[in-house]
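Protocol step 4 of 6.
Sequence for PAS domain-containing protein (Streptomyces coelicoflavus) entered exactly as in the expression construct, tag removed. Do not edit the line below.
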Amino acid sequence: MSSHLSADHPAAQPPGHGSVEALISQTRRLRGDVDAVRRDSQEGAADARGRWQRALYDLALNQLTDLNAHLAQLRDGPAPAPRPGSLLSRVGSAEWNLLTDEAEWSGELFHILGRAPGSVPLSLDELPSLVLAEDRPKLTAMVTDCLVDARPIDGEFRVAHPDGAVRTVHMMGEPVLDTDGSTASMWAVLRDVSELRRSQRVVSETRDSLRHPPPPPWHGLLRFPEAGRPGLDLAAAHLPSAAGPRSRYGGWYDACPLGVDGDTLLAVGDFETPGTEAHDPAVFVGALRGLALAGTRPGRLRSGLTALLEDTTLSPVRGAVYCGYRPGTRTLTWADASGAVPLLFRGGTGRGLSGQDEATLEAGDLLLLHTGALEPAAVRHLLSLAPRLTGAGPAQDVVRIVTHELGDFPSRQDACVLVARVTP
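Step 5 output, structure tokens:
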């Protein structure tokens, strides 16, 4: 790696024109072959395996398209900008002089890091100010190892742009030594790999969906309307215990009309005796919906359900949260959180709605309800995913991310999550 060669410009001696042209032709033929196989293999494939295959084909086709673009740059010189939706972007470069404390950035690096063109390049000490707090220790460790132990840098971190966008940046670098062998400066190349990582996550998440157990037997009762509820995009999932599936389920969730004014009841909870024959979520949810349709407000649902359950053999509810959403004013009310407080994600941040019982939501807000069976570490992990969850799109995509991420918690009990995205 040479410190005097900018990553924004081709080398002085590019490869032979004919050899590059041959590679471009081979890449285009391969892309055409992959596209043909994709079309032939995806007819009628609408199940989880079909989604996984589509994600893999899309990733391969995007990477071949980008490879073709990079080869064209070798032949013709650098393109002015990557194509829209490209998985790979042009790289930027920087050199930080340790003797003069000066920094030199290439033009593309300003765009990658969200800095205004022509502004003063940041020093190594200032660079972490652009990085998300949880990634700063990683960046500091990479730079320290490079400057102190002369280790090459090869790692990733996330940066926050002024418009709130969070981008993933891959950095490669090495120390530049002076004549006596001491480190005089550090040179690095950086590129935005956000789209590449997003595509890889889609492949991973759709692959993992193939391993999920079938939905609980009461899932059919809780299928949300295709159009969701007024002002909300809804999705939910059951997360079986890490110890393995059981014949009975400890959690439940529902979203249904709350009275006749267009309001929606959002609720999740679990039972005192999970995994026994003493409860049936379908019967319980039927009773819950009856009370909701009668106009029983969230604050009175617990007492109403308790009275109904006393005359049955159903297990009592151990913990639940009942939320009412009014689309006209985007007002959310809730009651009886019992430790499992609603989580609100907005603008790349997340927090628990504790210490109050009413909030005004905004278009794009993401509400996540969960049963008390989720351990505190799992809840903290969900909050740390705020930038990714708020930018994930439809509620079903958020649920896929959540179930994938919570699969790494070996002590997880039988749990349920419900996601509601506020629509414009």
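Step 6, annotate. The chain has ten helices and 15 strands.
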